[in-house]
Every structure is written in structure tokens, then in C-alpha cells.
Amino acid sequence: MRKKIILIVLLIIAAYLVYFDVTSYIAYTKAKSEYESVLKEYNKTKQELDYLKQTMKEIESQIANSGNNVPQTPSTSGK
């Protein structure tokens, strides 16, 4: 009788450990999937930002080299 009780307790513990392992694995795969999705979105956004920075530098360079810059004169207001 005592061996049966010990066996039942061990089976319950084993079942709990298997349940815990399965639920942990499911949570891990879900978190990993979300992480990969966010990382992909981050990389896409970073590429867009780098492109915009490069475009801004090119535009600033074109403005500086255009020769059509109007010199800034001091304001005559307040005199």
C-alpha cells in the first residue's frame, strides 16, 4: 500500500514537471516569435532612418553647393 502511494505521488510530480516543461516551452516560443517580429520591424525602421539621414545630407550638400544662397543680413527692426 505504501509503495502505491509513493508511486502515485511520483506520478503526480512527474505529470506536473511535464506540464511545466510544456507550458514553459510554449511561452518561450511565443516570446521568441514576438522578439523576432519586433527585431525585424526595428531593422526596417533603422534602414528607413538611415536612408532619410543620407537623403538629408545630400539635400544639404546640394543647397550648400547651389550658389543661390541668399546672404543673411542683419534685421533692420528695432532701429
Protein architecture, described:
The chain is mainly alpha-helical. 81% of the residues lie in helices and 0% in strands. The chain is built from one helix and no strands. It has one helix spanning 2-65. It is rod-shaped, with a radius of gyration of 33 Å. The mean pLDDT is 89.
Mean of the pLDDT scores?
89
The topology string of helices and strands comes to H
Number of helices: 1
The poorly predicted ranges are none
Helix content: over 70%
Rounded to an integer, what's the Rg over CA atoms? 33 Å
The biggest sheet, with number of strands, parallel, antiparallel or mixed sense and barrel status, is:
none
Distance between the termini: 108 Å
Question: Total number of β-strand segments?
Answer: 0
Topology overview:
Layout: H1 2-65
Summarize the structure.
The protein is mostly helical. It has one helix at 2-65.
